[in-house]
Design goal:
Blueprint (H helix, E strand, L loop, with lengths): L2 H19 L11 E2 L10 E9 L7 E7 L5 E6 L4 E7 L7 E7 L4 E5 L4 E5 L7 E4 L5 E4 L17 E7 L2 E6 L4 E4 L6 E4 L7 E7 L2 E6 L2 E6 L4 E2 L1 H4 L2 H13 L8 E4 L5 E6 L2 E6 L5 E6 L11 E9 L2 E7 L5 E13 L4 E7 L4 H13 L3 E7 L9 H13 L6 E3 L5 H6 L7 H10 L4 H5 L2 E2 L2 E2 L2 E12 L1 H4 L5 H8 L15 H16 E2 L2 E2 L1 H16 L17 E2 L2 E2 L2 H10 L6 E5 L2 H14 L2 E4 L7 E10 L7 H10 L12 E2 L2 H9 L4 E6 L6 E6 L4 H12 L3 E2 L4 H15 L5 H17 L1
Parallel strand pairs: 26-27, 26-28, 38-42
Antiparallel strand pairs: 1-27, 2-25, 3-4, 4-5, 5-6, 7-8, 8-9, 9-10, 11-12, 12-13, 13-14, 15-16, 16-17, 17-18, 19-20, 20-21, 21-22, 23-24, 24-25, 28-38, 29-30, 31-36, 31-37, 31-38, 31-39, 32-33, 34-35, 40-41
Helix pairs in contact: 4-15, 10-12, 11-12, 11-18, 13-14, 18-19
């Protein structure tokens, strides 16, 4: 019996048990989404165990990979300095032979696993195609690529994706057309003319390949160059692919696939795990739970999946730091199906950064499984207030999670009720070992105790001309300055939506109007008046405003920095006032790149009373779990440099990790242009210099108070503030509504 069949039965038992236990949960459990998954199989044995294969010495960037039937691996990639190498391995990655190819114009590559050759396509039509033989010999091949058919007269067409399937080469271009290409002659033959969707990427899968389109994933038979009807008509497979499309941004390489020993067996990997489907079969079987491996990190992109046998699989992936990995998964029949120990981690909302910490922890502690519980899944209509009430009931009953992500939660209330453990010893130990930004941890200190530690943090900056930033902008300064500007060809603030406008200013200023008894009405009034001045400055109608989908600075679980967008807005005439969140080292690189080319500077938003930061992934330890060594280890791992190795969002609380992120900052070229020629911006993103890092460090060290990081209060302020900005509610009524609702909420 194949291993997948055994695991399928195990999963079936797990699902049945989960169904029987569902009615016995704690109050409010039905409103929470959790990843307990395989927890009911703890008495079972056998699961896939992850290890990592060392990639060839000179290859930091894997452009493409292939595998032959004889199990030879071929990689083509670079050293990060424009030099390409071709590498081969006949022993599943234990040893590699390499051939230096020199400097090639390389945007897209593909490897023909069958003969160990590769092709390389450049950044424009003139680059053509370079054919690389298995021995490294390079041949230039002319490519009769059609002209770009979209808007923009100066845009050149180029190859955007390429794969070998069934020993044939297939590509797609900027026109989203799919071609079969002769690698020797460059002859191009358009296929699939009846496909109406835009094809953004190709996925290799044996003698078939996948088309990633703007509507989902379709499959093509490489031999005929037509849609693979047996796969297209497989309802179970199509349903599985639709789930991938719905749960992930399919343009971010969130899936890889391969065919099995026969051409009617498909294996695919995504962030949920490893799956098997027999074409035409009635089920899709999960072979491995991604949450127990690096696959669960939703910020990684998948490059390739290969099967060696039922017990061994290999996955090539790229993490959020642009580091390439080759993970090997080997089935071990002796280990527990699920690690024998368990801790629970609660977060109001899920983020990629949280999963990255969990992944780092489970790698270091493979005998512990982390059950992640999310209060607001976005799938069941549960509000922040509903989720907080449910959590409060559990916490006050001495139940609930071991570790809490306190972002958005009523932390002060938890401290007063004694449900959080003191973490001051963790702070002292971590600061002594690796150094912390103690100005951030000190902001939470009281009576010698600290009840929460932000793993990361970010802040709000004002960007623009020197005259704007010299004095250190606060709300009153901002409103006064906005009234001196005129909205014409250059806008004052831009067409941000009401919630986005309020959200930008809330993060910058809420620390100054939070009091022990509620809200400082005068400061809240200034907040609303400034928001109204900026919102009305350019006279946009509601239909002309940018959507508020990123009002909370998150998109698909990732933290979005608004400072770069605001700076580009300023340069393109979209807004003379640029205010936004500075959320990462890369954000800083972007701003330095923009300003070195186009002038300007940035400074902290300064309320005069506070220089606020926003805690991100702020952790607390439940008092009931204060002696739980596994929960303690999670906190320690999260604030260590090792635990934050994969995180790029926010600034690290750990100075060692922060230094590494600055040192490893990547260089690139960026640009933005309008199809009508009204603007054309380009700039270089360079590594952070020592002087720039020193300046950034000093700025971060000035931060001294957290924003009012309570999601229910955030929702109340933004929902009432929106009415005021849109003119459906007076300022007085808005102030009164916020005051009453906040007081009622805090009294509960």
């Amino acid at each position: 019996m194949k291993i997948r069949k055994k695991i399928s039965l195990l999963l079936m038992a797990c699902v049945t048990a989960a169904g029987l236990l569902a009615g016995c949960g704690l109050n409010g459990e039905d409103s929470q989404k959790n990843t307990e998954g395989f927890a009911s199989t703890q008495s079972g044995k056998g699961r896939f165990v992850e290890s990592e294969i060392t990639l060839p010495e000179n290859i930091r960037i894997v452009n493409a990979v292939g595998k032959s039937k004889g199990e030879e691996l071929t990689l083509i990639g670079g050293d990060g300095d424009k030099k390409l190498f071709l590498a081969h391995s006949n022993d599943q990655g234990k040893t590699w032979s390499q051939t230096k190819l020199g400097q090639l114009d390389n945007y897209v590559s593909a490897v023909n696993g069958e003969d160990g050759s590769a092709v390389v396509f450049g950044y424009n039509k003139k680059s053509g195609m370079q054919r690389v033989a298995a021995d490294g010999k390079i041949t230039k091949v002319n490519l009769p690529l059609p002209e770009y058919k979209g808007s923009g007269n100066d845009t050149e067409n180029f190859i955007t994706s390429a794969v070998f399937a069934g020993n044939k080469l297939f590509v797609t271009d900027l026109n989203w057309v799919v071609y079969e290409v002769n690698p020797k002659t460059g002859e191009m033959r358009e296929i699939l003319q009846n496909i109406s969707e835009d094809v953004t990427r190709l996925l290799a899968a044996g003698k078939t390949f996948g088309l990633v389109t703007d509507k989902g994933i379709q499959f093509v038979d490489a031999e005929s160059g037509t849609l693979a009807e047996n796969m297209q008509n497989d309802n179970v497979l199509q349903e599985a692919m639709n789930k991938v499309s719905e749960s992930h941004n399919i343009n971010s390489s969130s899936i890889a696939m391969t065919m099995g020993d026969s051409e009617d067996e498909l294996y695919y990997v995504n962030h949920e795990g490893l799956f098997y489907h027999k074409i035409g079969g009635s089920t899709t079987e999960q072979l491995m739970n991604g949450e127990l491996t690096s696959l669960g990190d939703r910020s990684i992109d998948f490059q390739a999946l290969y099967k060696y046998d039922d017990k061994n699989y290999m996955v090539f992936a790229v993490d959020s730091q642009e580091t390439r990995h080759c993970y090997r998964y080997t089935y071990d029949a002796e280990v527990s199906a699920v690690p024998e120990n368990q801790i629970t981690v609660y977060a109001l909302e899920d983020t990629n950064a949280l999963q990255q910490v969990i992944t780092a922890y489970q790698k270091a502690y493979p005998d512990v499984v982390v059950k992640k519980t999310i209060g607001i899944s976005g799938e069941d209509g549960v509000t922040a207030e509903d989720a907080v009430k449910s959590l409060n009931t559990e916490m006050l009953a001495g139940k609930g999670p071991d570790v809490l992500v306190l972002d958005g939660l009523p932390t002060e209330s938890y401290k007063e009720k004694g449900v959080l453990a003191d973490l001051s010893s963790y702070v002292k130990a971590a600061d002594k070992k690796e150094g912390l930004f103690t100005n951030i941890t000190d902001a939470y200190a009281g009576n010698g105790k600290i009840y929460q530690i932000p793993v990361r943090f970010y802040c709000t900056i004002v960007e623009g001309d020197q005259e704007v930033t010299d004095s250190g902008i606060n709300l009153k300064d901002l409103e006064k300055y906005a009234k001196t500007l005129h909205s014409g060809q250059e806008k004052v603030f831009g067409n941000w939506g009401p919630l986005t406008t309020l959200g930008i200013l809330y993060r910058a200023d809420s620390a100054s109007w939070k009091t022990k008894t509620g809200v400082d009405q005068e400061k809240l009034k200034q907040f609303l008046e400034t928001a109204k001045t900026l919102y009305d400055a350019d006279g946009y109608t509601e239909k002309d405003r940018i959507t508020d989908e990123i009002a909370n600075s998150f998109a698909e679980g990732s933290l979005i920095g608004m400072s770069t967008a605001a700076a580009l807005f300023r340069l393109t005439g979209g807004g003379q006032i640029a205010v936004g969140s500075l959320t990462s080292v890369n954000d800083v690189q972007q701003l330095y790149g923009i300003e070195s080319r186009y002038k300007g500077t940035f400074t902290l938003f300064d309320t005069k009373e506070h220089k606020a930061f926003v805690p991100f992934l702020s952790l607390g330890l439940a008092q009931k779990s204060a002696d739980n060594k596994n929960a303690q280890a999670f906190i320690k791992m999260a604030i260590s440099a090792k635990g934050q190795k994969q995180i790029t969002e926010g600034f690290s609380i750990n100075r060692t990790a922060f230094d590494v992120e600055c040192k490893n900052s990547q260089e690139s070229k960026m640009g933005s242009s309008a199809s009508d020629g009204s603007y054309d911006i380009s700039y270089e993103v360079k590594k952070i210099s020592e002087k720039q890092q020193e300046k950034l460090t000093k700025m971060l060290e000035r931060l001294d108070a957290p924003s009012w990081n309570d999601r229910v209060v955030w929702d109340l302020v933004l929902s009432e503030g929106k009415k005021y900005l849109q003119g459906t509610q007076s300022l007085e009524d808005t102030l009164s509504a916020i005051r009453k609702k906040v007081q009622l909420y805090e009294a509960e």
